[in-house]
Structures are given as C-alpha cells and as structure tokens.
C-alpha cells in the first residue's frame, strides 16, 4: 500500500471540511494510506506571505520537515 | 527568453479541418448572443489569429476582433480560447476551438470588448511617474536593487487577460480595482523615484485587500507578470505598516494572533475580530448564518476553542523568526 503524509490545512479542518472528508474516501478508493500530520497547523497562507515572507517560509519548511521526519512524501489538500 | 512548449495539437497536419465555434453578438441588432460554427483548413504554425483571419478573408464571416502587432507586444488581441484568456496572436490553433470575448468587460461586438472600465480605473489610479525631486539628468543613476519588484511589472502589455480571469472582478458588485489596474499602480508605488502616497490609493481606489490571492491572474498572464506576488502582495505589505486600523490590515494582524494562540485559523473569529462591530459585520451576518446552517462553521467550537496540536511549537517558531526580523530591522 502506498503511504503519504497528509496535510489538511485550515480550510479542510474548518469551513471546508468536505475537502477532508472527500480526500479520506478518495485515498481509500485508490488504495492510498494517508497519515495525517496532526501537529502541522497553518501555512500562514497569503497573510504571512505578504506580511512576513520569512515567517511564511519557516512555517512551511516546518510542515515539510514533519512529513520528512516520518519518511513520507507529502500530500497537501 | 521565449519558452518553446510542445502543444497538444502539434500533430495537426496541413489541410486537416479545424472545428471552430465563434461567439457572435451585435448589441445594436441582436437580442441574444449566438455561436456560429466554422470549418477551417489547418496551415503550418497556424495561430488563433490566423484562424480568425481565414474566417473573415475566405469565408466572409465578418467577425469583429481587435489586433495590431501580432507579436505579443500590443495586448489588443486577448480573447477566450476554450474558456481561457489568451492572446490570439500567440495561441496555437487547436483541433476544436470555442472563441469568445474576454470575461468581465462589456462586449462591443463579437470578440471586441470595451476597455472603458479599465481605462476609467487608470484615470483614478494615475499610473504615471511623479517625482518629488528634480530629474537628475541622463543617464539617471538607478540601481537594479532599488527598482526591486517594480522591474518585474514593466513588461505588462495591458491585454486584460488577468482582469478577465479574476473571480473577484467577476462578482460584479465589488469595488476591487482588479489585477491589471493594480499592476499599473504598483509600478509607480514601488518606484523609489515616485514621491506620492500610492499605498493609500491602493486602499481607497484599489481596494487591494479584496484580492483573494487565488493566482488566477498570474496563471492567465501571457507576459508572466507576478501579479499577486510582485504587485498585489507588495502593495499589501506596504499597507501593513502605513494603514494600521484598516479592516484589511486588522485581518492580517488577527490572522497572526490566531495562529499564535490556536495553531489554526477559525474563520468566524477571524471575521468578527477583524471587522469589529461595523456595518461590514452586520452585512455579512446572512452569509455567516448560512454557513452555520450548512455546518460550515461551528459557533460553539469558535467560542470554546482549544489550541490545535502543535500550537506551542508553532508559536515558538513564530517568536524565533519575528525576533530575528526585529533584530535585522534595528541593524
């Protein structure tokens, strides 16, 4: 079975939870095991990107590092 | 540098028939727009512009379209090709094509759109270099470093592909100036020689915070202008320092506070805290209520929140980066 680290993001965990629900079903249908990065938090989105590009990079490097720690490729929704 | 990309239809053979549907509408005569279908024989290296020329010259189709330079410089031949804003002079012909006028602009006839809404915005945004110091003479001492992001915006050919692709402009009832006008404004707002407060203008007349950063404009731009990252976000970044108290700036501040304390964004809290008890909050109540009814927001979870896993680590990381930034600013 293929395994991927899964980063859901704020929308998939909040106002757009259908993203989260559908990815669980789609992954199962394709036989992909997804390992949710529960500690990942937020990317900082456009707000950080405009106000503090370095913070934006650091936040996202952290998310990539969380996936790397598990030795998995990352899937972002 | 021009990038040569293999096109899905490069396997077209000379003489092969292309099936072309063209939007036809003359508001002075027609009650409704219609689509007419044509067949065009493919010729080597045929572009959308060549297809239109064939239709008018050989089939007397009398289609109205605008073009001038035919080499991606003048920006007049933008239109929708299979739903995407493209320059007719730069787009290879495809086996089946639907050609329509740009979105978000009134149609004058067929594929010709009225650029007046854009030109009206330009008049208000006044994108022209206005110095506060006298011209030092030629050659002007200008370092590439000082021009920064402004350099990336000079190549805009004002074709309005971005304006046509923008979903916020498409809403119709917004005061958002849209991508192309903001690129023109940013050219001078980011120019160190310009002496005006153009950041303020990007807020009042540009309504730059209405941009949702979806990047549809950057994807559509045939001149590869970094519309969001090089213009709109740079204007926003300036406002974060200059326009404290504005709801758009407040939104960014609350965003930061929420990530620091909760690790994730909570949409209702973000909206309520950035807008406060304002008219905008009350006018957004209906949307908020609809979101609650559809389960898209959970008010109880917003009120009785707990930090998301990892919040402590995120908050520490934010401290480290922000302290470093502060030290650098001091130095």
Describe this structure in words.
The complex is a heterodimer of chains A (77) and B (331). With 77 residues, chain A is of the alpha/beta class. Chain A contains four helices and three strands, in the order βααβααβ. A three-stranded parallel beta sheet of chain A has the order 2-1-3, with helices on both faces. The mean pLDDT of chain A is 90. In chain B, 34% of the residues are buried. In chain B, helix 11 crosses helix 16. Chain B has 331 residues and is of the alpha+beta class. Chain B has helices spanning 48-59, 116-125, 144-147, 150-153, 161-165, 167-170, 179-189, 198-204, 216-220, 227-242, 247-262, 267-275, 279-283, 285-293, 299-303, 311-330, and strands spanning 17-24, 34-41, 78-81, 84-87, 96-100, 107-109, 112-113. In chain B, a hairpin with a 2-residue loop joins strand 3 and strand 4. Helix content of chain B is 43%, strand content 10%. Chain A binds chain B through residues 10, 13-17, 38-42, 44-52, 54-55, 58-59, 62, and chain B through 212-213, 228-229, 233-234, 236-237, 240, 251-252, 255-256, 259, 263-267, 291, 295-297, 308-311, 313-314, 317-318, 320-322, 324-325.
In terms of topology, how is this protein built?
The complex is a heterodimer of chains A (77) and B (331).
Chain A: E1 2-7, H1 9-13, H2 17-29, E2 32-36, H3 45-51, H4 53-69, E3 74-76
Parallel strand pairs in A: 1-2, 1-3
Chain B: E1 17-24, E2 34-41, H1 48-59, E3 78-81, E4 84-87, E5 96-100, E6 107-109, E7 112-113, H2 116-125, H3 144-147, H4 150-153, H5 161-165, H6 167-170, H7 179-189, H8 198-204, H9 216-220, H10 227-242, H11 247-262, H12 267-275, H13 279-283, H14 285-293, H15 299-303, H16 311-330
Parallel strand pairs in B: 1-5
Antiparallel strand pairs in B: 1-2, 3-4, 3-5, 6-7
Helix pairs in contact in B: 2-7, 7-10, 8-10, 11-12, 11-16
């Amino acid at each position: 079975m293929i395994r991927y680290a899964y980063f859901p993001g704020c929308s998939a965990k909040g106002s757009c939870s259908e993203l989260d629900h559908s990815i669980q079903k789609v992954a199962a249908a394709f036989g992909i095991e997804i390992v949710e990065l529960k500690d990942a938090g937020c990317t900082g989105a456009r707000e950080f990107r405009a106000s503090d590009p370095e913070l934006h990079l650091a936040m996202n490097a952290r998310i990539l590092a969380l996936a790397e720690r598990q030795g998995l490729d990352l899937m972002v929704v | 540098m021009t990038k040569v990309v293999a096109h899905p239809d490069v396997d077209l053979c000379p003489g092969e028939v292309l099936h072309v549907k063209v939007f036809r509408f003359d508001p002075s005569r027609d009650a409704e727009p219609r689509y007419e279908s044509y067949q065009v024989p493919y010729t080597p290296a045929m572009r959308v512009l060549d297809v239109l020329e064939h239709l008018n010259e050989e089939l007397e189709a009398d289609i109205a379209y605008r073009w001038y330079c035919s080499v991606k410089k003048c920006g007049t031949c933008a239109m929708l090709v299979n739903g995407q804003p493209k320059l007719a002079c730069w787009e290879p012909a495809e086996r089946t094509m639907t050609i329509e006028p740009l979105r978000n602009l009134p149609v004058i006839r067929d594929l010709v759109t009225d650029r007046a809404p854009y030109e009206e915005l330009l008049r208000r945004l006044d994108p022209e270099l206005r110095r506060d110091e006298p011209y030092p003479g030629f050659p002007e001492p200008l370092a590439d470093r000082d021009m920064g992001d402004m350099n990336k915006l000079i190549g805009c050919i004002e074709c309005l592909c971005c304006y046509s692709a923008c979903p916020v402009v498409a809403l119709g009832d917004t005061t958002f100036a849209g991508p192309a006008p903001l690129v023109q404004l940013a050219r001078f707002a980011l120019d160190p020689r310009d002496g005006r407060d153009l950041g303020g203008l990007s807020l009042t007349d540009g309504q730059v915070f209405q941009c949702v950063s979806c990047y549809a404009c950057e994807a559509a731009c045939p001149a590869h202008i970094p519309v969001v990252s090089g213009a709109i976000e740079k204007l926003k970044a300036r406002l974060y320092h200059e326009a404290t108290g504005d709801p758009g700036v407040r939104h960014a501040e609350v965003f930061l506070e929420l990530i620091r304390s909760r690790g994730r964004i909570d949409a209702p809290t973000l909206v309520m805290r950035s807008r406060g008890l304002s008219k905008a909050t009350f006018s957004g109540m209906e949307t908020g209520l609809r979101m609650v009814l559809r389960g898209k927001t959970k008010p109880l979870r917003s009120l009785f929140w707990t930090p998301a896993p990892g919040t402590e680590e995120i908050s520490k990381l934010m401290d480290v980066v922000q302290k470093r930034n502060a030290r650098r600013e001091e130095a």
